[in-house]
Amino acid sequence: RAVxxxxxxxxxxxxxxxxxxxxxxxxxxxTIDSPSRMASDRGISGWVFTHREGQIVDDVxxxxxxxxxxxxxxxxxxxLVSRGQAVGVLVLSHPAVAAFSKRDxxxxxxxxxxxxxxxEVAELHERLKRAAxxxxxxxxxxxxxFYDRLEEEVARAERHQSPLAVAFFDIDELKKVNDTYGxxxxxxxxxxxxxxxxxxxxxxxxxxxxxxxEFAIVxxxxxxxxxxxxxxxxxxxxxxxxxKLPGGGAIKMPARSWGVSSYPMDxxxxxxxxxxxxxxxxxxxxxxx
Length: 289
Fold this sequence. Notes:
There is one protein chain. The chain is α+β, with helices and mostly antiparallel strands and 289 residues long. The chain has two domains: 7-132, Beta-Lactamase, CATH 3.30.450; 143-286, 2-Layer Sandwich (Alpha-Beta Plaits), CATH 3.30.70. The chain is 40% helix and 27% strand. The chain is built from seven helices and twelve strands. The strands form three sheets. Strands 3-2-1-6-5-4 form a six-stranded antiparallel beta sheet, sandwiched between helices. A hairpin with a 2-residue loop joins β5 and β6 (85-94). α4 packs across α5. 34% of the residues are buried.
């Protein structure tokens, strides 16, 4: 409203790719043809992000740093700074030359500070949410998240009449590892197992540490036969996995017992599916896998 005809874009920094990524667009024209992501040191936006200093560019065609929509003639860019660290930039674009004033810059710096504070609160909330749903040792989902997601998937399978499988397995000789090599070695076994599972399952699968030496995987849209093939392959990979010990040396990944259940054949509730898969895992353990 302060600058009629302007478009506003919020670019946030992606730490993994070290890029500025467009997260929101608003204003008079939202079909602005600028890159949705760019290296954090490129363009006028990259300069503002790197130097943490607002800029008014009266004519972007005269600025060799500019990368973006040729219809844009002037821009106002301010950094989004949280706790002294740049987290992104706020960009105002306009099709007219010299559309922005010093007063606009001061106003947008105030707005940018407020947006940065809100981003910090949102990121903190997301970190706390992830921590509440994550097993601290293995880095995969915990019991609480596993059951929440399994109940959601059971409801979805019932609505759409789609297959759903649950894999359950435990480490047969973790106590022996703890007694022989110490609890730090046992923790490393759990950590490596969790990491291996995460690397081998699909994006839509939900691997979790169920508790102690027990692990489980929710496998949406997966018939039991297919799930068993996936688990067999995962067990083969784990059989060939070495676990490096904290004090030096390595041991083979201890043996595991596993079982798979499927909806609706083996149960129509989360509890029934887990119990059925656990029973199969126990039966496999009794007969020596």
